Amino acid sequence: MVAVPFGGAPTVEDEGALGARAQLGRDDFALLYRELLPDVYRYCYRRLRHQDAAEDATSQFFAQALAGLSRFHGGSFRAWLFTIAHHVVVDEVRKAPPTSPLHEAGSVADPSPSPDELLIRAEAGQTLAGLMSQLTPAQRQVVELRLAGLTAVEIAAVMGRSHGTIRNVQHQTLSRMRELLAQQAEAGESRDGA
Fold this sequence. Notes:
The chain is mostly helical and 194 residues long. The chain contains eight helices and no strands.
């Protein structure tokens, strides 16, 4: 079996071997499951923003990946897999109700982080969410896929665009995020000075 550090991206060599071996048997697919579960779940969670939806999407992803292994015919195995994940997330978004019913509010589990951790997460999340909301949909998708650990080549395969186009989008996104952060810093300084 291919040895890949937990949660890490396989190398191109190992990735192809892992894809080929996963096609051969369910034991090898179990290895694939263990290696990709954290990355796929994080990707689904970032896109869906709800634990239950992310868990459902992750399960659907692995079911579809297992069923479709015979359709993988080379190239980047991770890109092929994250294309499946992308389609599962899009399907989840399409079928999700616009808002959660009020009765679900009472069944929210308490993850029990400290109030300080909650404040830090909230501030970081608001900053990132604020920045992400000001990006184009393509820029947001590139950032989300990069956060999931995909390379520019893999992102290009997932999005159906050329590698050069993705590199250009990445450059534009970084420039835009720097500009937005500078604007936020200036606004914060003017509030503090007033």
